[in-house]
Amino acid sequence: MDDETGAVDDGPDQWSLEARQVLLARAEEVRTAISRYVDDLSTLAGRQAELPELFDVSDRLRSVVGAFDDAAFDLTGVSPLGVDAWDEDEEEDDVDDESGDAGGPVLTVVGRWDYRVTDPDALLQAGRRGYLAHWSDDTDEDAAFHVQDVVSAANEIIHGDAVHRLDETPGLEQVRFATALLTHDGGDDGTFDDDPFGIARAPRED
Q: Are 167 and 173 a contacting pair, CB within 8 Å?
């Protein structure tokens, strides 16, 4: 942080008395924060409606622990909690590359299905039943919290299943559909997560 003169404040000097005192203060804050976190969790039962509160208490603890890690770095030059995280994107890239080397082209089906919403309440109820079918330990209250609109209801209905499940869903009437099929080499150019349907718009090589 810059002070009034424009100089950058890099924190206390390493191994200084000030840095030690800051670390001790941050350590005490971590002890208090952990105790509070445990107390907060004792009031939660794992319901979907409690997710915002769970995120809040987790963020509070993470902030305090992060300040402790910063203080430890200021004192020693080492972050005791600064471990490398698993790189999910890198892992997924490795898997995609392996599947692309399996041999043969990849067949991609790109489609559009239009449904008219004829009964929103019936669709919401179907979506909540679909949610509970996959999360059997949750309650009706959790389902109502998680499925509150047409999109979330349809998403739960086709969760882990094909889109044709919507054809038989109460509250929906199929209007039209269209599909496009194409083959490609299966190579992952990094665009799938950003625009999975972009492959249908990309220029084709002769």
A: no
The amino acid at residue 181 is L
The residue ranges of DSSP E strands in the chain, in sequence order, are 106-117, 172-184
Residue 2 carries which DSSP code?
B
Chain centroid to CA 178: how far? Answer: 30
Question: Which pLDDT score is estimated for 200?
Answer: 77
Q: What are phi and psi of 141, to 5 degrees?
A: -65, -40
**What are the structure tokens assigned to 179, written together?**
């599909």
DSSP tag of 203: P
Report the distance separating Cα 122 and Cα 2, nearest Å: 58
Number of neighbours of residue 129 by Cβ within 10 angstroms? 16
User: Residue 172 and residue 143: Cα distance in Å, rounded?
Assistant: 20
pTM: 0.58
